[in-house]
Amino acid sequence: MSEQGPAACAAALARSQRLILAAHVHPDADGLGSALAMALALRSLGKQAWVALDAALPESLAFLPWGDVLHEVPGPYDTALVLDCPEISRTGRLAGALQACPTLVVLDHHPPTKPFGTHAWADPSAAATGELAHALIRALGVPVSGAMALALYAALADDTGSFRYSNTSPRTHRLAAEFLEAGVKPYAVAQQLFESYTPQSLRLLSAALARIQLFAGGRLGLVVLERGLIASCGALDEDADGAINYVRGLKGVEAAGLLREGEGQHRVSLRSRGRVDVAAVARAFGGGGHAAAAGLTLNGPLESCLPALKAALQAALPGLPA
Ligand code: AMP
Ligand code: MN
Ligand code: MN
Q1: Is the distance from the beta carbon of residue 283 to the nearest atom of ligand 1 less than 6 Å?
Q2: Where are the strands (E) in 145-246, listed by range?
Q3: What residue owns the CA closest to ligand 1's atom 1?
């Protein structure tokens, strides 16, 4: 059993000297923004800290104040800090290096699925891991710098859909206000996160919108992006990220799914308007996430694995009044 809670995690980090930090594969502004803010805070305490990536840094997150924090530094490290991951497998090819560290601290806001680490603080009431990172930075006695505020504001803005989703709380807004006071310009961040389309990414969005299929009387919306479509738009895989929100936003849709076809492995994003627990559906397929935003990977030919997912989503729709 690992040591639990913010005090145990802060104490473990305070004892550390040389750290590797990591978030989940297909990283977002919450995972990487939280990791960056923690790395900067740990460095301000005189520690060596780097953020490692499973793959290239997404273009959309290049605006964060990385400095030389992103680095393929050979180990060994005495401590790993894993953020925004409810299980170690979500760190992808970094999992081995992270698990090799004598101290492994986990900071997360997902409902834990397969708890791991020597020290963990998981709080599903937090809108973003960034809220918890902020609390740890304070617990370490580090003042929040402008760079940390920017990274943490991006984390909050991304995971709350610009402070719109149901996870947004008074705490989220209070923290956002603190980050603005530290100099963050909200429209500058919003432009980077939400208004940085390329002609190629808009072409892909247009193709995705044209492919929305409705089931269950319009209560289930699905989009399948076949292999080759993303390439034919000249777009990147990550350019499809925002399309799922339009599907959920369709009036009457209660559950939405977006599938990116891969070579035998297909990445699925699920979203709910609130009444359907899409994390439960995702878990049934080996995935995970939050009740309103979850994901999973399907394996095998599309025609054999897609019907099962569709049936599970349909079964998860609440009954209609008689
Ligand atoms: P996404 O649709 O990729 O934005 O992910 C939505 C939520 O589901 C995030 O909290 C992810 O961390 C989580 N998630 C996505 N894919 C998976 C997966 N294959 N396994 C577990 N959780 C996932
Ligand atoms: Mn995330
Ligand atoms: Mn998150």
Answers
A1: no
A2: 213-215, 220-225
A3: 269
Residue position matching structure tokens 């849709």: 253
- Quote the pTM value: 0.97
**In this structure, are residues 64 and 154 in contact, taking their beta carbons and an 8 Å threshold?**
yes
Helix and strand totals (H; E) in the chain:
12, 12
Tens digit of each residue's pLDDT (9 = 90 or more) over 155-182: 999 999 999 999 999 999 999 999 999 9
Report how far residue 73's alpha carbon sits from residue 238's, in angstroms, rounded to the nearest whole number: 26
Pairwise CA distance, residues 258 & 234, whole Å? 19
Q: What is the pLDDT, as a whole number, of residue 321?
A: 64
In this structure, are residues 193 and 156 in contact, taking their beta carbons and an 8 Å threshold?
no
| Atom from ligand 1 closest to the CA of residue 244 | 2
Q: Which ranges in 182-249 belong to alpha helices (H)?
A: 186-194, 199-210, 229-232, 243-249
The angle at the Cα of 160, spanning 117 to 296, to the nearest 5 degrees, equals: 55
Whether residue 58 has its Cβ less than 6 Å from ligand 1: no
Among 300, 249, 91, 79, which Cα is nearest to 258's? 249
- Nearest ligand 1 atom to the CA of 270 is 2
Query: 103-108 and 119-122 as β-strands: parallel, antiparallel, unpaired?
Result: parallel
Helix, strand or coil, per DSSP, at residue 153? helix
From the CB of 269, is ligand 1 less than 6 Å away? Answer: yes
* 174 Cα to the center of ligand 3, angstroms: 18
